[in-house]
Sequence to fold (282 residues):
Amino acid sequence: MGRRATAYYLGRLELEFWLRLKWLVQHAWHGPRRRGPAAVSFIAGVQRSGTNMLMDVLEQSLLTDVYHERDPRAFDNYSMRETDIIAALHARCRAPHFIIKSLCELQRLPQLRQRFPGTRIVWIVRHYDDVVNSMLVSFRNHASQIRRLAQDKLAVDWRGEGMSDATQALLRRFAGPELSDASGAALMWYLRNVLFFEQGFDRDEKVLLVSYERLVAMPQAEFARIFAFLGLPYRPWHSRRVVASSVGKRQPPAIEPAVRAECDALLARFHALLPAAPGEAA
Fold:
């Protein structure tokens, strides 16, 4: 077994031990109880944008009850279960913070917030090149999905739910027979991420935008910002395993220039909302 594989398995064993210890501590805790129900936070973004890493770090806190998309209590085939089921899990939560992933449900976040007043959202955005490269490793049907969505918003399960007429019109511009899977995946990145602006999250003080690239390059500063936003104490220990090796790991995919231009424009809108990084002009 190579060094990287050994480090990976040791890390998983450490995480498994920590989660068991955390469960015991939370269920044996007899100290002061929280006032009122647990605070609810949704971790949002497009698939392959780093939400797993973010959830893993948040799970390191003793003050969180974290529900990944692989958790059958809260998800079925990566989609969130009925809201009543999530509400029941929330009601049984023993931690002060109830944190659940929301990827297939980006378009449902406004409705979910109505059910859980005071909800906070952390939306992570990653450069589309790395997202597309990651998507193409596992799936080769993005072009066909875009062609179908260009004709019918509900043709491909949750992917087109909440899609605006303007976004569908953009898909129609590119949905010809020559559309490649790389360009199709980039358009999928676009149509899911543009919901951030279409739902007014850029003007919402209870929504925090996070750059994946900044998160892995400056984990202590960025995770301190996230934890503070959620009302959690942060220690560098929480993010000790975060590394930046996944950024620009592969060559940029062969995305059609016009599609790339649309993605660049959307990415620029995101970057304009981020706080100035150390060394940048405000």
About this structure: The first strand starts at residue 39 and ends at 45. The mean pLDDT is 90. The domain at 3-27+36-273 is CATH 3.40.50 (Rossmann fold). DSSP finds twelve helices and seven strands in the chain.
